[in-house]
Amino acid sequence: MRALVLLFLFGHASAQSLVPIPDAENPCLEYGCRYYEWRIEGIANVRYVASGYDDGIDYSLYRVAESGDYELLLRINPVAVDDNGAYFWGYAWVTTDIVLDDTGTKPKFLATFEHDIVREGVISVPDWQKELPAILFKGQRGNSSVELGQFEFKVFDIEELLTHAKGES
User: N or C, where is the chain less crowded by C-beta within 10 Å?
Assistant: First the structure.
């Protein structure tokens, strides 16, 4: 059913596994900080990280260098879609996969910069980042997940996401 919904909604998109990094070093120093980290199947050196507190969690994509150092690529808004095609906020504990376009030589993200998501709470966005894209994930709606409405996702590689996030599109 999941593959049918994704194919119907997004053409050549498929849900790629988010592989948890169980031994990831949690950089949070204070009590109550949540930290989640995943490797994205098909994109070797990119990590999806959710880190923060109940009053604000940063959702980010990082590039991992050969040295093991993490470079922040950009902050994102995670939007999840369930098996019925409904969109909701992609909390770290409800997302199961990321939806990628798998045509071409490397997977690309399904994202949009045309949304009305307003982030509340304490979040950290780099000065250079003018826009936060909504990136599509697969998920199972939890009790606290509110339906978000409709989105028109487009295909972006990581460099295109960065260009748009900088406001250079």
Answer: N
